[in-house]
Amino acid sequence: VQLQASGGGLVQAGGSLRLSCAASGRTFSNYVMGWFRQAPGKEREFVAAIRWKNGSTYYADSVKGRFIISRDNAKNTVYLQMNSLKPEDTAVYYCAADRWGQIATMPREYDYWGQGTLVTVSS
């Protein structure tokens, strides 16, 4: 299984970015895909998750109403649309896959990880 995250960059507060996570190596129809982030000196934290099969979603309170997670079955890609970005959203963002198909918010519950992509939000 390979997860390739992309789309990070520098953006001003209030701006938007879309992250992508291209998945390959197996069929992901029963998986849950998640996005996590880790700011300098902090633990990795849950951002959002989506069930690949039915598209149901779950968000951390800190991003609810601003971020949208989605998937494209044809492209085997998961997206994280980030709007109304704040300086506190600055972090390295990681995508992850949970093969057990349960929405999970703890990093240890995910089986596969992509490399991170840096998002920097300036004030």
Brief characterization of the structure:
This protein is an all-beta fold. The protein has strands at residues 2-6, 9-12, 17-24, 32-38, 45-51, 57-59, 67-72, 77-82, 91-98, 112-113, 117-122. Strands 2, 4, 5, 6, 9, 10 and 11 form a seven-stranded mixed beta sheet that branches.
Output the keywords.
123 residues, mainly beta, four-stranded antiparallel beta sheet
What does this structure look like?
This protein is an all-beta fold. Strands 2, 4, 5, 6, 9, 10 and 11 form a seven-stranded mixed sheet that branches. A hairpin with a 5-residue loop joins strand 5 and strand 6. The radius of gyration is 13 Å and the shape is globular. It starts with a strand and ends with a strand. The model has no long low-confidence stretch (mean pLDDT 96).
**Strands, count:** 11
Overall residue-averaged pLDDT value: 96
Radius of gyration: 13 Å
**What is the tally of helical segments?**
0
Spatial shape: globular
Q: Determine the N-to-C terminus distance.
A: 37 Å
